[in-house]
Design goal:
- This protein is an alpha+beta fold.
- It has two domains: 110 residues, Nuclear Transport Factor 2, Chain: A, CATH 3.10.450; 162 residues, no CATH class.
- The chain has eleven helices and nine strands.
- The strands form two sheets. The chain has a five-stranded antiparallel β-sheet with strand order 5-6-7-9-8. It has a four-stranded antiparallel β-sheet with strand order 1-2-3-4.
- Strand 3 and strand 4 form a beta hairpin.
- Helix 5 runs antiparallel to helix 7 and helix 9 packs antiparallel against helix 11.
C-alpha cells in the first residue's frame, strides 16, 4: 500500500501539470523553441493555425539563434508576447498576439515591423558617399541632412533593445522635447483640422525641430496609434508600418495592442513606451 501511494504521489503532479492549460508566455516559449511541439495545434487559432500547419515557428528559424520571450501584456481576454531572436551580430523582434477561448489561450497572429529590409541598403549607399557628395546632399536636404538620415535609418531598423538603449542614453533630451511640445500646447485643441495645424506648428518650432533631429526622430504627432491623448515621437517606417516612442503618463489611457494596428507597446518608464504599428 505504501508503495502504491508513493507511485501515486510521483504520478499525480505530472497528470495535473499535463491537464493545466498553458499561459501565453509558456505557449510562446514552446512555439519558438527549436524542437517540435506535438500539442502545437491545440494552442493555435486564426492566422497562426493556417501558417504553422506542420512546424512551429521555432523549427523554421535557424537553430543557432537565441530566443528570448517577454510577456508585454496579459489581460482577461488578450495577451502579447515579444520574441527576440539574437546571434553574435544581429537582433530581430516579432510579436505573438493571443486571445482567450473557452478552452484556454490561443496564439492567433504573429507580427513584426514591415519593410525594414529596405533600410540597410539605403544606409550602405549613403555611407559610401564621398565628402563632396555628402556636402551636396546636405545642400539639397537641409531639413534632413546626411548625418540625420543615416542615423534615422539605422534607428528605424534597430532591434527593440537598441531603440530602448537610445532612449535611455538620451533621456534628458527626450524629456526636453516633450516639455517644449507640452508648453506650446500644440495638441490641446480637438478636431482633425486643429490637430493637423498644431502638429505642423510643433514640428516647425526651431527648438523642437533641432531636438527631433538630434534624436533621429522624424516628427511628433498624434496620428499613428489611434490615441487622442498620447504624444507620438515617430522614428520612421513605410506606409502604416511605423516605429517610435509614445508618451502617456496615464496607463488607463493607453491604446490597446491589436494585430491589426498597434502590434506592440513596450514600457520604458516615466510614461514613455516603444511602439510599433502594422
Amino acid at each position: 500500500m505504501k508503495h502504491f501511494l508513493f507511485i501515486l504521489f510521483l504520478w499525480l503532479p505530472q497528470v495535473l501539470r499535463a491537464a493545466m492549460p498553458l499561459e501565453p508566455l509558456q505557449i510562446a516559449r514552446q512555439f519558438v523553441a527549436p524542437t517540435g511541439w506535438a500539442e502545437m495545434k491545440d494552442y493555435l487559432c486564426c492566422e497562426a493555425a493556417g501558417q504553422a500547419k506542420r512546424q512551429t515557428l521555432g523549427q523554421q528559424i535557424p537553430a543557432p539563434l537565441r530566443r528570448t520571450c517577454q510577456l508585454v501584456q496579459q489581460g482577461p481576454s488578450t495577451a502579447v508576447v515579444a520574441v527576440e531572436l539574437r546571434d553574435s551580430t544581429s537582433r530581430r523582434d516579432f510579436y505573438l498576439h493571443f486571445s482567450k477561448a473557452a478552452d484556454g489561450w490561443k496564439l492567433g497572429a504573429i507580427r513584426n515591423l514591415a519593410m525594414t529590409h529596405l533600410g540597410p541598403p539605403m544606409v550602405e549607399l549613403l555611407t559610401a558617399m564621398p565628402p563632396a557628395e555628402v556636402a551636396q546632399y546636405d545642400l539639397k536636404h537641409p531639413e534632413a541632412t546626411h548625418a540625420f538620415t543615416v542615423g534615422n535609418l539605422k534607428l528605424w531598423t534597430s532591434a527593440d533593445a537598441d531603440i530602448a538603449a537610445h532612449y535611455y542614453q538620451h533621456r534628458s533630451d527626450f524629456q526636453e522635447v516633450l516639455r517644449l511640445v507640452q508648453a506650446g500646447q500644440y495638441f490641446t485643441p480637438t478636431g482633425n483640422t486643429a490637430t493637423t495645424v498644431g502638429e505642423q506648428a510643433a514640428n516647425a518650432n526651431p527648438a523642437v525641430h533641432a531636438l527631433l533631429r538630434k534624436l533621429y526622430l522624424g516628427r511628433v504627432t498624434r496620428h499613428e496609434t489611434g490615441c487622442d491623448s498620447c504624444l507620438e515621437f515617430v522614428i520612421g517606417g513605410k506606409v502604416t508600418s511605423t516605429v517610435g516612442l509614445l508618451y502617456q503618463p496615464q496607463p488607463d489611457q493607453l491604446p490597446a495592442m491589436t494585430p491589426d494596428h498597434l502590434i506592440v507597446l513596450k514600457p520604458l518608464g516615466d510614461g514613455w513606451y516603444l511602439y510599433k504599428t502594422s
